[in-house]
Design a protein that fits this description.
There is one protein chain. The chain is an alpha/beta fold. The protein has helices at residues 29-47, 65-74, 99-106, 171-175, 259-267, 273-286, 291-301, and strands spanning 5-10, 51-53, 78-80, 109-111, 118-119, 124-129, 145-151, 183-187, 193-196, 202-205, 222-227, 232-236. The strands form two sheets. It has a six-stranded mixed β-sheet with strand order 4-3-2-1-11-12. The protein has a six-stranded mixed β-sheet with strand order 5-6-7-8-10-9, with no helix packed on it. The termini are far apart.
């Protein structure tokens, strides 16, 4: 029996005005963000299906007009929930003040919420559970394919979590709250994974859309293709043009600061700003912090 592509699944795009430190060597950050967005549109065109996003389209709710204009021109049309980064002070009640909402008004984004499921192409029914929204089972017995779109931290094991991650956020616990759904897209946890529960629910935690931190040097972002039989195929994005600060196998310099030691050094300071700058310089030199990171810190203090 043939299967139909229902949606392209993505999350945690984190559009930002400036590159994270890890990507600060990009000659044009906006062009660097455009590359994966173009690939996202390519998959939507290839499989002839809509894009569904699990939240955090923007890295900051109050993004600049320049970044909003970039998103209007380059973000493919998508159905999405709002993540905490999309919301002023993480409050859904203030969503209309956000850059995310501007994209809703332009039509780039169709916002999903728990009270109004949306049926789209090929009988796909989208149920939105954005940031801080309680999950609820799907009670309808109709013939639609029901997809839960969730922005909430979820984990499946040590490799996909942080130490002491809440047991209530484990995949086995959250899946019980999604009874009746055929599949669920999760956003928030940047460590991507996919699993199928005992009762047949396919859970796809997308992970980060773009590599943004040093520990993602070997991370390969993937989008998901949801099919009518409930399966999800992952398609890898091409990151070959990414420019990063980290050089593999080069341990002579560091791009991350040990903040525990950093705070200890700061505690030795008085109130003199010159002493503060000297201490920062000394710390970066002693800890062999990479020059680009060092320069960025000094620029922020200027």
């Amino acid at each position: 029996m043939s299967k139909t592509a229902l949606a392209i699944l993505v999350s945690d795009i984190h559009l930002s005005d400036k590159p994270p430190i890890f990507r600060s060597s990009e000659p044009d950050w906006f062009e660097a963000m455009k590359r994966p967005l173009d690939q996202l549109q390519y998959f939507a065109n290839k499989f002839d299906c809509p894009i569904v996003c699990g939240g955090d389209v923007f890295d900051k709710w109050n993004s600049s007009p320049e970044l909003i204009n970039f998103a209007i021109d380059n973000l493919p049309m998508m159905y999405s929930v709002a993540g905490q980064h999309d919301l002023p002070h993480h409050r859904y009640s203030a969503i209309e003040r956000s850059a995310y909402w501007t994209l809703c008004k332009t039509g780039n984004i169709i916002n999903l919420n728990e009270n109004e499921p949306i049926e789209i192409k090929n009988g796909l029914m989208l149920h939105g559970f954005g940031w801080n929204v309680d999950l609820a089972p799907m009670l309808s017995g109709d013939l639609c394919f029901h997809l839960a779109v969730v922005h909430r931290y979820i984990w499946a094991g040590a490799a996909t979590s942080y130490s002491d991650a809440p047991e209530t956020n484990h995949v086995n616990h959250l899946s019980k709250k999604l009874k009746g759904f055929q599949a669920a897209l999760f956003g928030d946890n940047h460590k991507g994974f996919m699993t199928t529960t005992k009762d047949g629910l396919t859970i796809f935690n997308h992970g980060g859309f773009m590599r943004r931190t040093r520990d993602q040097i070997n991370y390969k972002p993937k989008v998901g293709i949801l099919f009518s039989d409930g399966t999800i195929e992952r398609k890898e994005l091409n990151c070959s043009e990414d420019k990063t600060l980290v050089v593999e196998n080069d341990t002579s310099t560091r791009t991350e600061i040990d903040f525990e030691n950093f705070v200890v050094e700061l505690e030795k300071l008085g109130s003199d700003s010159l002493d503060f700058r000297k201490s920062i310089l000394s710390y970066c030199e002693n800890q062999n912090i990479e020059k680009e990171v060092h320069s960025l810190i000094m620029e922020l203090m200027s």
